[in-house]
Structure formats: structure tokens, C-alpha cells
Amino acid sequence: MRLRVPLALSAAGLLAAVAALAAPPAAADPLDLATCAGTATYQFSPGVTNTPQNIQVTRDIDLGLCVTPLLASASNHVTAGLKCSNLLLATPGQLVLTWNNGQSSTFDYTTVFNTVNGVTSLIQSGSITSGRFAGSLAVLTMTGTTLDLTACDNEGLTSNTLAATLVITPNVS
């Protein structure tokens, strides 16, 4: 017995297959001005211990995987009185984002920390206060394994790397 498939159904299936092959990769929400992913690396000098001391904190963020436009780099450097017990406190901050066209954006944020099942999330949300996308909203989410605070009893915590995602959206309020 021979099975006949109507031509219209075959054509529709062929069109669906071709469309699936030709479809672009999934993109950000059409309202997003930029969506980027990469890593955030923190360096602490000297290492963070249980004794309060001024520590130079360097955060270098590589968010090179962007759904237009490309973000070349982001970094900030601060000196803060840190110890292990206050390392994960919510704090405000500022980050300068440098785009691949030489422009920059200043991101003023507040931080919320959350640790669940061995995963720490740092969510920095706020607004772009100057430069490219000024007036827009931004959220930088960084996630990774919970910090090894046992290092605080020894030489100190000297670095940590987290997965990072930045999303910039228009401020529609």
C-alpha cells in the first residue's frame, strides 16, 4: 500500500524546514537596546581576610558576546574597607562601559546579593546616567559558585570569576 501525502502539506512542511534553517539565532527582546554576556573577574589586593583592611578591588568585565551593539569592555577600580563578613553587603556603585565604537556609558547601580544552593547571584540594577544610552535602564547579573570564605582564615580571598549578563532597556516611565 502506498501512502500519498497531499502536495499542499508537503510544501508547507518544506517551507517550515527551510524557514527553520534560515531563521536567525534567537535575539534579545526587541525593546532591549543591548544584551551582552561574558564574565566578570574580581581581583582583591591584598586578599580579603577576616580582618578589616583597605583592599584594592579591581573588577574587569568582558561582555564581548552582545546582541548589538558590541561592548568592548567594562571595568572599575575601588579601594574599600573590606573583610570577609561584609564582602557580600548590598552597596551602590558606578561602572563605566566602553563600547566597540569608542563611546562609553556610565552605569549607576545598587547591588542585591542572593545565595541559593551553592550559587551566588549579584544583581546590579540602575540607570545609564551619561554617555551612550543615557536615561536607559540597565541590569548586570553575575552568577557563580558561592565564595570560598574558608580562604578568609588563611591567605585571603584574592580573586573570583562569575558569569555576567548585561541588559540595557529604554526607560519608558
Structure commentary:
- The chain has 173 residues and is mostly beta strands.
- The radius of gyration is 22 Å and the shape is elongated.
- A hairpin with a 4-residue loop joins strand 4 (92-99) and strand 5 (104-116).
- The chain has one helix at residues 7-22, and strands at residues 34-48, 53-67, 71-82, 92-99, 104-116, 119-131, 137-145, 157-169.
- The protein contains one helix and eight strands, in the order H-E-E-E-E-E-E-E-E.
What labels describe this entry?
173 residues, mainly beta, 1 helix, 8 strands, disordered N terminus
Estimate the mean pLDDT confidence. 76
Taking the alpha carbons of the first and last residues, their distance comes to 65 Å
Fraction of residues in H or I helices:
under 10%
What structural class do the secondary elements suggest?
mainly beta
Low-confidence stretches: 1-29
Main sheet overview: 8 strands, antiparallel, barrel
Q: Using only CA atoms, what is the Rg? A: 22 Å
Strand order of the largest sheet: 1-2-3-4-5-6-7-8
Q: Give the DSSP E fraction (strand runs of 2 or more residues).
A: over 45%
Q: Give the overall silhouette.
A: elongated
The ordered string of helix (H) and strand (E) elements is: HEEEEEEEE
Q: How many beta strands in the DSSP annotation?
A: 8
> What's the total helix number?
1
